[in-house]
Write the structure tokens for this entry.
Amino acid sequence: MINRNRVKRLLPILSPLIAIASALLVGAILILCARANPIVAYTALFQESLSTYFGLGNTLTKMTPLLFASLGVLVALRAGQFNIGGEGQIYLGALGSTLIGLYVQGLPAFIHIPLSLLAGFFLGAVWGWIPGYLKAVRGVNEVITTLLLNYIAVNLVSYLVQNPLKAPAAPSPYSPLIAKSAQLPIILPGSLAHAGILLALIAAAILWVLLVRSPLGYQIAAVGFNPNAARYAGISVQRTIMLVMALAGGLAGLAGGTEVMGLKFRLFEQVSPGYGFDAIAIAFLSRGSVFGVVLTSLFFAALRSGANVMQRSAGVPLTVVYAIQGLAVLFIAIGLAVEQRISAD
């Protein structure tokens, strides 16, 4: 006889795995429709992105901003808040780290790097705190404010790199190079992988401790589960919401900061190719688990890293990769509905 309680405990683990497997299966059908071989396509995709030295380095590079931004979405979800503003927070974080990297000179790396990271975290946190304040104090829906703040951040960075921050004689909008002392070291020589991935993994571990093993984590969960009960228990719901949204923005800000400090070394008009929006999908797919966010970020990074190789090797359009990402989210939504049905029975 099947133990129903055991099944309920396993569902949060199995559901994302089933969703990803289902997305890959439907993706295989799409690849067949494109008159390509799914086995050849997936072999090229994952072999290049995970089993080759340079491919793995590229995957870890793309995983860094995805993991930081996804952790930002996750911590907000724990408090019942929907942080749709990761993209804008990434841009502000990149701006903060760039400003310190450009205009603070003469510091040793062991001071300059943390200072630049702190600036990226701070500007991202401010950009996350604004909708948190508006939600907690004014009752303004955070989905609307975080979404609108994305456009402000993107256009602010665009203005800056086209005008005061534009490098002399630059053929396109980008800033001068940041100081060497503000650049993150490479961890895989000859590849693009930098120390940002180590910082992201450390941030994930710290966040797990914060959410699972600390009183603050209990407060965040209580506010997310039932704000009225949390308020009755003496928890400041307003302060918790503002704190969580600031932390979410700061984590996304680190995504932008490490992108500048570890990969591009300058601020570009297009800092992020949509990492903030991918982070929303990753956080939902991981079902609120920090460990799940790490694994799902790796999966999404591998898709991005190997997409071009899959296109060259098997003739599969890049849009199939984005379809697989969307299908994974769709299937996790179906899994949630099924899980709720099982729990109600």
In short: The chain has a mean pLDDT of 90. Residues 20 and 328 are 5 Å apart (CA to CA).
